[in-house]
């Protein structure tokens, strides 16, 4: 079997090797599109379960809006159409006839949802309106990369409408908290929370907030965004309500999304030269049991291993057994390490005799000899340990690759020779932000809520800094 | 508030009134498309949960394939392209450029999945391959009806590949059983199971099997289909495997689907002049608690009602409380009957004193006075009773509107003056099937596995019948 390129040799190549060898995806015969294979889709289902529960617990309800958006809808919000027009695919014929008005395939649904909200919202009693949609969206990107940037991808998009700007901003930030909780505690990925600079905000938003994660090559990946729209879309789509004081007022809206690019983040944050490493809370299989032994004893071992599996499964552990006889244990060890299963449980005839099992951690490689009587008690704690350890490792990596720069040459040097994020002061001028990009290749990621340090001067012009900003190369 | 048209007055109008008043959907600003509003989408989520669990338990795995299908793919299976071509929407431009090859929006995914299966299947070890996809699909229909026939709809489509025809046929029928279990036991809708006639089978299939349900206006609704493809798609897409005997062989494939049209079936089978009636197993809310009483006592009642809600919820009942003070109990009673909640729990100051509650069944209108101490024990059984009763009522209706005809005039009379399904003999000739449609307006639904009666002569030509067939007008 083909070897995986090492991360140090070629990180991009390592990434492609891993996702294909781990059977997460395949390239589709349509430009920039991929097929989510069962192991990849299962990861997305795990993300969906966790997010969907959180959305419902915070009062959002799911709905489904059309894939097609009439061309005229995009014209209604000027910045929005400018931002998305270059990436739209157009349906021009259907049912054997040329359409009178072209239909875009949705790149995001603010426009069509805005249109529907305008019909649904009549009175202050109809507010807040808090809707989420699970859907496929399409953006015809020039350069694509599996999971991270594909022509079609899967995501959730939340859309809410409120009576006051304060309530809408509160929603925007509550969702950023929700995303942070999901990404840090379930995916074990530490993030920097903050606000996007005007040039990086969503097309049509007043403010965009983001959580930014660091991949193992030091590049940034935007792991979730939450947008405060003010009344921009309300005015464009005439979303008005009759208030208690009997006057018509525009609503304030928000939107926010997390997509299948999270799969790319999981892989690039936790993966290593052996392959994937999945955080236990999101791993479809948490424990893989591999029976070992000479042919004549194997049946007894497998019978015993099946019992262990059933008992573990009853305690809620997601456990599988691989009892295929025509494949060697060594091959299986490599395979499940490649696929990122957090714990391998080995059991052979001698273990049976000693009433013990061997547990091997994917994150550290550590081998634990556990008395069979303690197994059920030990596994949940072990999974928790692995989850915490994976988060800590990712955080250590992130922190040790987060730098501070006071001069543009210094930042350029860090970005070129080292890797990671660079914190710098910024005067607030677009031109200085552009200079950073030109000189270093890094773009502003966000203006962190809690910067490790506050920088007094703009890294480009030296004038007083309005903001302290994270810069990095990004996916 | 606008009254719902009665079923006897105008069934089609009743249907539209109910789905809008019950807030299940709204019309979208794109031809033939609807918006699934939260209450409607929640019903679909309930269907998804039940089906998804069954698919996984029977060894299927979810995956996701592209929305776009290159035009050339459709050309590969002749019957398939003829069947679907007239309904395809085409993307001709994307990212500001005209595409070299037009891309269809998937109406179903046999072609693109066939292409991928051909790459994934190498050896007999890769078989069977059993995949399911949850997705949106588009068919540009001339006449549309919310849920039942919309330009875009949501569905699941299963696709499997096997080494033998016997195994593939077994899969096809196993899925028909799975659908039957879901539709009869969860949706409380009785179905006739059988095989489609050649003219009604899926474009490209060898055999199509269906389950057919009867709506309250006597029309048929195809509630699920399962197709045995033989090697048609295997040959078209070169799905071959190396067998144990070291020769290359084509696989045998199946596909099967259930869509959001099930929502239409639930409504048209169980609904009445009061509105929706949801079977408890699929109802998002099974019990609605309405506190009653004069303003000064209401707080005490609501506190008590909240406790009841929490206790019921803990036993797994899906229960909500409507404690809004500015809306009268009478209005709420009507509203939750309209929305089809299976059980209403009324509680007022006198009930508090008597330590009892009042339960009102949506299916029968029956009022039950239940001692509070027995409530938790009584509710699950009551929900089960309602579920069974709804199935029985639907089955009685269906059976009493299932007729037998021996002459075409007789069938025409039944279809015209009465309603329902008509069982008739058929010689197997296309021309006779067409005559039935011309003379009666009914089409063949399926050739039932267990016909209530076997008819010896073709209802059109009088020659010996090859099959006994259900005919009906259909959605």
From TrEMBL, chains A, B:
GO cellular component, one term: aminoacyl-tRNA synthetase multienzyme complex
Transmembrane segments: none
Chemical reaction(s) catalysed: tRNA(Pro) + L-proline + ATP = L-prolyl-tRNA(Pro) + AMP + diphosphate
UniProt superkingdom: Bacteria
Record-linked InterPro entries: aa-tRNA-synt_IIb (IPR002314), aa-tRNA-synth_II (IPR006195), aa-tRNA-synth_II/BPL/LPL (IPR045864), Anticodon-bd (IPR004154), Anticodon-bd_dom_sf (IPR036621), Pro-tRNA-ligase_IIa (IPR002316), Pro-tRNA-ligase_IIa_arc-type (IPR004499), Pro-tRNA_ligase_II_C (IPR016061)
Example GO molecular function: proline-tRNA ligase activity
Enzyme class: ligase
Keyword terms of this UniProt record: Aminoacyl-tRNA synthetase, ATP-binding, Cytoplasm, Ligase, Nucleotide-binding, Protein biosynthesis
Compartments (UniProt record): Cytoplasm
Primary subcellular site in the record, as a coarse category: cytoplasm
SMART domains: ProRS-C_1 (SM00946)
GO biological process: prolyl-tRNA aminoacylation
Pfam families named in the record: HGTP_anticodon, ProRS-C_1, tRNA-synt_2b
Residues in Aminoacyl-transfer RNA synthetases class-II family profile domain copies: 31-279
EC nos: 6.1.1.15
Quaternary data: Homodimer.
Family listed: Belongs to the class-II aminoacyl-tRNA synthetase family. ProS type 3 subfamily.
UniProt remark on domains: Consists of three domains: the N-terminal catalytic domain, the anticodon-binding domain and the C-terminal extension.
Primary role: Catalyzes the attachment of proline to tRNA(Pro) in a two-step reaction: proline is first activated by ATP to form Pro-AMP and then transferred to the acceptor end of tRNA(Pro).
UniProt xrefs under NCBIfam families: proS_fam_I
Protein name per UniProt: Proline--tRNA ligase
Organism annotation: Paenactinomyces guangxiensis
Annotated gene: proS
